[in-house]
Amino acid sequence: MVTVRIEKKPSFKICGRKTWVGQDNEAFGQFWEKCRKEGLIQLFERIHENRTETVTNSNAIGVSCVEKDPNDRNFWFYVATECDHSPEGFDLEEYTIPASEWVIFENYGETPDALIEAEMYAFEEWLPYSRYNHANIPEIEAYPPRKTDKGFSYEFWLPIIEKEVLIEIE
Known about the structure:
Layout: E1 3-9, E2 12-21, H1 26-37, H2 40-47, E3 61-65, E4 75-82, E5 93-97, E6 100-109, H3 113-126, E7 132-134, E8 139-142, E9 147-148, E10 151-162
Antiparallel strand pairs: 1-6, 2-4, 2-5, 3-4, 3-8, 6-10, 7-10, 8-10, 9-10
């Protein structure tokens, strides 16, 4: 069962690697696997060993750069971590996530099913009936280190902005 919460978050910097994602949903998993094999996820864990708190509370995050047009599902996708600066000796790109209000959809289970279920709930059931629009800010998939009897925690972060209300005056 997907749970929903809305939170305001400050801007934060990420560093990681990116790939262009077209309409091929398999590209996400393939890119995550490539980053795992290259040791990127282990590097992110080392970066976070001494950090007590981060904005996403995750060692690794996925960032879908849809800020130009959230309806265009061709975009740059980062496998990244929150960082103050890119560690020396690694070819990582930096990017700043703007401050925003986020609706965070949390689900438990197995990857990628639990994350996909949270995203589908966000776009098909929650957003169309809410008082919000998708803000022109990247979407985030976060993996906080929480586990229950239902499985691991997965979060889909959707940036939001209140819909403009038009009032007709006669």
